[in-house]
Amino acid sequence: MNTNKHFSQIKKQIIKLGMVTDSSHHYRTSLLSLLREAVPFDAACCTHVDPQTLLSTGAVTEDHVESIHPYLFQNEYGEEDVNSYEQLVHSRILVATLYEATEQQPERSARYRKVLNPAGFGDELRAVLILGEACWGYLTLYRKAEQSKFLPEEYDWIASLIPLIATRIRAFSLELPERDETWLDNHYGSGIAVLSDQLTLLSSNPAADRWLDKLRSLEKIDAHILPRPIRAVSTQALNSPSESTGTPKVCIRMNEGPYLVIRASRLHASDGQFQCAISFEPARPADMLPIIAEAYRLTEREQQLLHGVIRGLSTKELASALHISAYTVQDHLKSIFNKSGVSSRRELIWYLHSRYNIIEA
Predict the structure, then answer these.
(1) For residue 17, what are the contacts with CB-CB under 8 A and spacing of at least 6?
(2) What is the CATH code of the structural domain delimited by 287-356?
(3) How far is Cα 36 from Cα 145, in angstroms, rounded to an integer?
(4) Where do the structural domains in the chain lie, given as residue ranges?
(5) Between β-strands 201-204 and 191-196, what pairing exists: parallel, antiparallel or unpaired?
(6) Which of 31, 98, 133, 248 is a Cys-bridge partner for 124, taking CB atoms 3.0 to 4.6 Å apart?
(7) Measuring CA to CA, which residue among 241, 29, 40, 28 is closest to residue 129?
């Protein structure tokens, strides 16, 4: 079959998949199966990321990758190497391959020398799922060392799919609670866990155990596997302890109830070793505002106004704080009302509370 015709047929199936699949895990699993028909590969991983921090919020990882996943995280956050995901996002390079980045000398890459080659892999293709200004996920494909490297026509075709895939990943990441959905019971409150520097669970409270179970269920992974969001924030915290980098965190839309925020901090243990403290808590207004802004495509000014509304500021106070007229405040409020489907400030506050658990300060 003509290669271009085959690419076109698979692309149509991927478009259809995005229209009929309402489960993120099923979408990504089926997506990898379709991609394999057009661009053969031996292993793959498709990851959701928090667009604010670019850290994993969950992944679909095939068996051959699962065994090297911890080392890939270590390489990403602990070593300088070619084609880091953050590097690709910031440079707006949508698709890159290991062989291309190393000018056909993969041994120049620490990831290749320490992780991929020992596992029998040769070339690696990485795609960053960017839509507009935000990155929503990563797609990574691997070929065994005895297979051919990825070809330009293959990664060009993968690049052409990125708007389609990123649109669906974004939709899953921003999926909102139904208006009548009840929040998780209070026993799913704040959790605390402590990990060793090898990311072994040392201690946890009951709430943390429940959140860990929820995260494993979300990713459909076994109890002995550390959820990818935990691995991502922990690895970054252990490798980037400087306060200037901020506290590693992710904000995740759970299958039910509120968005969950996970944070990690490096600890100095009494024996001189490092540990990692993990906190789990329902998202607060400051965590939710970027999500709400992205979901309803609010402008920067509208985000500032919404933050003031959540704080309970009056129209006059909003005008003073933002150095605009009261009439301009009203115009921006009307735009927010239209985008969120409400008709008044009172209804907006109730909407934010009922769907996002946000209450006026």
Answers:
(1) 27, 30, 31, 34
(2) 1.10.10.10
(3) 17
(4) 3-173, 191-283, 287-356
(5) antiparallel
(6) 98
(7) 28
Structure tokens at 72: 């890939």
Q: According to the model, what pLDDT value does residue 183 have? A: 47
191-283 topology per CATH: Beta-Lactamase (3.30.450)
Model pLDDT for residues 108-142, shown as the tens digit of each residue: 999 999 999 999 999 999 999 999 889 999 999 99
AA identity, residue 246: G
| 3-173 and 191-283 agree in CATH topology | yes
CA atoms within 13 A on the CB side of 351: 17
For residue 112, which of 67, 87, 142, 91 has the smallest C-alpha distance?
A: 142
Please tell me the distance from the alpha carbon of residue 113 to that of residue 240, in angstroms, as a whole number.
Answer: 23
Q: Which residues contact 186 (CB under 8 A, 6 or more apart)?
A: none
| CATH code of the region 3-173 | 3.30.450.40
Interacting residues of 269 by C-beta distance below 8 A, sequence separation 6+: 275
DSSP 43-58: EEEEEEE-TTT--EEE
Residue 186: the pLDDT is 47
Contact 145, 112 (CB under 8 A): no
108 DSSP 8-state letter: G
The rounded distance, in Å, linking the Cα atoms of 237 and 275 is 10
Tokens matching residue 54: 């670019």
Cβ contact 348:336 at 8 Å: yes
Find the radius of gyration of the CA atoms of the chain: 22
Q: Tokens standing for 96? A: 């890159």
pLDDT in tens, 257-282: 668 999 999 998 788 889 999 999 98
Q: How many residues does the chain have?
A: 361
228: helix, coil or strand? helix
Confidence (pLDDT) at 244: 52
Q: Which tokens go with 82?
A: 């070619």
The 3-class SS string of 212-254 reads HHHHHHHHCCCCCCCCHHHHHHHHHHHHCCCHHHCCCEEEEEC
CA distance 131 to 57: 17
State the DSSP string of 112-157: IIIIITTTTEEEEEEEEEEETTEEEEEEEEEEETTSPPPPHHHHHH
